[in-house]
Amino acid sequence: MKKLIAYYRLSKEELSKVIFPTKEQVRSAFISVLLVVSVIALFLASVDFILGSFVSSIL
């Protein structure tokens, strides 16, 4: 039981050291990720379309 209590206390102490992001940081990170994923998706879609058209024209 003592180990469980010690584990709980250490966990609580470590959790107090954590710095959580603010709403603005979360929002800006979300927008950045969304933008990067969108650009990569558009790039891959265009490459797929170009290569698909090329292969279709050959066949």
From TrEMBL:
<keyword id="KW-0811">Translocation</keyword>
<keyword id="KW-1003">Cell membrane</keyword>
<dbReference type="InterPro" id="IPR001901">
    <property type="entry name" value="Translocase_SecE/Sec61-g"/>
</dbReference>
<comment type="function">
    <text>Essential subunit of the Sec protein translocation channel SecYEG. Clamps together the 2 halves of SecY. May contact the channel plug during translocation.</text>
</comment>
<comment type="subunit">
    <text>Component of the Sec protein translocase complex. Heterotrimer consisting of SecY, SecE and SecG subunits. The heterotrimers can form oligomers, although 1 heterotrimer is thought to be able to translocate proteins. Interacts with the ribosome. Interacts with SecDF, and other proteins may be involved. Interacts with SecA.</text>
</comment>
<keyword id="KW-0812">Transmembrane</keyword>
<protein>
    <recommendedName>
        <fullName>Protein translocase subunit SecE</fullName>
    </recommendedName>
</protein>
<keyword id="KW-0813">Transport</keyword>
<dbReference type="InterPro" id="IPR005807">
    <property type="entry name" value="SecE_bac"/>
</dbReference>
<feature type="transmembrane region" description="Helical">
    <location>
        <begin position="29"/>
        <end position="55"/>
    </location>
</feature>
<comment type="similarity">
    <text>Belongs to the SecE/SEC61-gamma family.</text>
</comment>
<dbReference type="InterPro" id="IPR038379">
    <property type="entry name" value="SecE_sf"/>
</dbReference>
<keyword id="KW-0472">Membrane</keyword>
<keyword id="KW-1133">Transmembrane helix</keyword>
<keyword id="KW-0653">Protein transport</keyword>
<dbReference type="Pfam" id="PF00584">
    <property type="entry name" value="SecE"/>
</dbReference>
